[in-house]
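dumping these here so i dont lose them again. two proteins, back to back, each one seq then C-alpha cells. dont judge the mess
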Amino acid sequence: MKHIRAILLLLVVAVLLGGCSFGSAQELIDPISPTGTNADIKDALESFCRDGYALKTPLTGDFNTSYIFYDLDLDNENEVIVFYQSASDPDRTDMAVMDRSGGSWSVVSSVEGEGKDVYSIEFCRLDKDDYQEIIVLWDTSVNSSTHMLTAYDVKLDNASIALSKIGKSMTVSNYIPVDIDNTGVNELLIFTVSGGLFPSAKATLYTVDKNGFSARSSTKLDAHIKGYTHIISENTDQGFCVFADAVQANKTQMLTELIIWSDYYGEIVAPYYSYSSGTTTRTARNSKLCSMDVDGDGYIEIPLDAPDITLPEQVEAVDWKQYRSSVLKHACYTLAVQRDGYQLLIPNKYFDKISVSYDEADSKLTVSDSKNNFVFSVMRLSRSSYDEDPALYKDSIELKSDLGYIYLAELGNDSDIKITAQDLKSMIKSYEGE
C-alpha cells in the first residue's frame, strides 16, 4: 500500500507541474465512489460544492475513509460524513453531513474546519441526550505533533440533522473519551505538551456540556517527550486506568504515562510521575511497542525492556507488566520482530533457557535451548513467493497470514523445551496488537 501511495503521489506531482487544474489533479487520487443506491452521494456533494472540491481522508483512527457512513440521527439509516477542501479555499478542510430523503442525497449540514488537514474523527456520547457527539482532530500540517480538537453537537432540526460547535477548540497532543463514573456519558481526558525554554506536559479531565469544556481534574506529566502516539483505557475490578504511550524527546525511546482515578483524592493521578524530578522513569523503555492486552487476559500490559538475554539486533525481548493492586507486576514475555510485524509469547518457564538467532535474508527467527538444541523457527514469507512453489514448504506449519505475508514455522524434537504447533499458533501475535 505504501508503494501504491508513493506512485500516486508522483503522478499527482507530475500533473500539477504540467499545469493541470485543481479538479484534474484530484481526479487521480479520488477514492472509489459509492455505488448502488448510494451512487448519487458524489453528485450531491458536487452540487453543494459548485466551484469544485477535493476530498480529504482522516489520517488515522477507526474512520479513515473519504466517505464515512454513520447513523447520526438513530433512524437505522446511515448518513455520510465527508471532509473536503473547496477549490475556492484550498487552505482549509471543511466537514459536511449528507442524508438521504425522498430517495436522493443532499448536504444537510456543514461546518468550517479548523485546519488544512483532518487527523481523526470519532463519535461518542458527551452529554445525556440520545445522540452521539462528533470529535474531530484538525491538523495545520500533515507532520504536526499537535492538533486542534473540536467537538460538535448533533441535533435534529425539523427532522434534519444540524451540527453545532461545542465551546472553543483546544490545541492538544492527543485525547481519549473516558467514562470514569460508569454513567454512560464520556468525559474527555486531554493530553497537552508545550515546548520552549520551560517544556511542560499534563493530562486534564474535562466534562463537556452545551456550554463547552469544564476542567474537573489535572495532573502534570513528564515533559521530555515529542507527543502521545497511542492512548487506551480500561475500567476493571482493579479500577480505572489510562495508558498513554509517548515518544521521548530523543526519539529513540518511549514511555507510558499511567493515569488512574483516585476515589480518595477525587481526581486523576499519575502514580509514576515524580514531581521532584519532573520525570516518569518506571515505564520508560527502548522498545517501540505500545501498551496492549498482549496475552488476551482482559487486562492491558505495558511493554518494558526485558532482562538481558543474548539477542540479534533485529529482535527485542519485552517484559510485559500489568498495573495491579497499585504496583507493576510481570505478566508475560515476548520476542518481538518489528521488521516482520509480529511477536511471540514465550512461556515464563522457558524465557531464561533460550537463545535466539535471526537470518535477515530469509526473515527467519530461530529459537534454541541453552544446549543449542533446535526448538522452533518462524519465517515470514510473501504470499506471492509461497504461491510460486508451495511444495517447498510442505513440512512447515502455517501460523497465520496477513497483508500479503504468510508466517511459517518448523519444530524441533531434540530439546527439553516442548513447544507444539498449537502452542506456536497461540503464541504468535501482531507487533501492533490484534
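---- next one ----
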Amino acid sequence: MLRFCLIGPGDIKFHFFELLKFSEEDLNEYIDGIAKVLKNLDVEFVLLPYRGFF
C-alpha cells in the first residue's frame, strides 16, 4: 500500500478561484477525479492542513 500525503493549498478561494479561475463545480469535479484514481491505487492518506505563510 502506498502512503500519500496531502498538504492543504492554503487559501482555497485565492489559489483555485482567483489564480486558477476554477468554479466551485470545476473544483469539485477535479477533486472527484483525483479521489477516484487514488481509490483505485489503494492509497493510504495522511493529511497535513496548511494555511500558508502570513
